[in-house]
Amino acid sequence: MWKRLVETGDDRTLFLIRVMLGLVMFPHGAQKALGWFGGFGWSGTVGYFTGTLGVPTIVAVLIILGEFLGAIGLITGTLTRIAAAGFVIIQLGAIWYAHWQFGFFMNWAGTAKGEGFEYALLAITMAVVLVLGGGGRWSVDRSLATR
Fold first, then answer.
1. How many helices (H) and strands (E) does the chain have?
2. 3-class SS at 20?
3. CA separation for the pair 38, 117 (Å, rounded)
4. Are 70 and 18 within 8 A, CB to CB?
5. CA distance 64 to 58
6. HSE on the CB side for 88, CA within 13 Å?
7. Could you tell me if 29 and 59 are in contact, meaning their C-beta atoms sit under 8 angstroms apart?
8. In whole angstroms, what is the distance from residue 74 CA to residue 19 CA?
9. Mean model confidence pLDDT for the chain
10. Count of other CB atoms within 10 angstroms of residue 3
11. Alpha carbon distances (Å) from 52 to 45, 71, 120, 128, 139
């Protein structure tokens, strides 16, 4: 099972998708976990998820850890499939709880009351590719699988 979890080809495309998704998601995770990039930090984010969205505390904690540690995992290619699967679940939850009601499109002009779900769909698609293919070239997973 371990071998299947970390096994991946020497694919540069998977590397590119993995690193880009990790770099895009890292600021979101850092906002939630550390309060960086204008975020609310750990307690503020847990408070928002539990108070405003009605998410159980354990789910809020898993979202924060999933986004923050998952992004680091993707950037380094460590447990890529687990990190990517976490992002699929997180983004599906984001669509359900925060974006579905605003439709498909992002709020590029700043005139809508919220953001649509197009960004989440792109993140889900990238993450599914990584769940299926693994971390690709220059990943910790690839190094572990070849040992």
1. 7, 0
2. helix
3. 22
4. no
5. 10
6. 14
7. no
8. 6
9. 95
10. 8
11. 10, 25, 20, 29, 38
Tracing tokens 């990238």 back to the chain, one arrives at 126
Pick from 50, 55, 60, 122: which is nearest to 91 by CA? 122
Average pLDDT of the segment spanning 50-74: 97
Greatest C-alpha distance within the chain:
53
Q: What are 77-95's pLDDT values in tens digits?
A: 999 999 999 999 999 999 9
Pairwise CA distance, residues 142 & 119, whole Å: 29
Structure tokens at 53: 């969205």
pLDDT tens digits, residue range 14-37? 999 999 999 999 999 999 999 999
Compute how many other C-beta atoms are within 10 angstroms of the C-beta atom of residue 109: 7
Q: Who's near 87: CB < 8 A, 6+ residues apart? A: 21, 25, 66, 67, 70, 74, 123, 124, 127
For residue 63, give the nearest of 80, 81, 42, 78 by alpha carbon: 42
Alpha-carbon radius of gyration of the chain: 16
Instruction: Give CA angle at 78 (77, 83), nearest 5°.
Output: 90
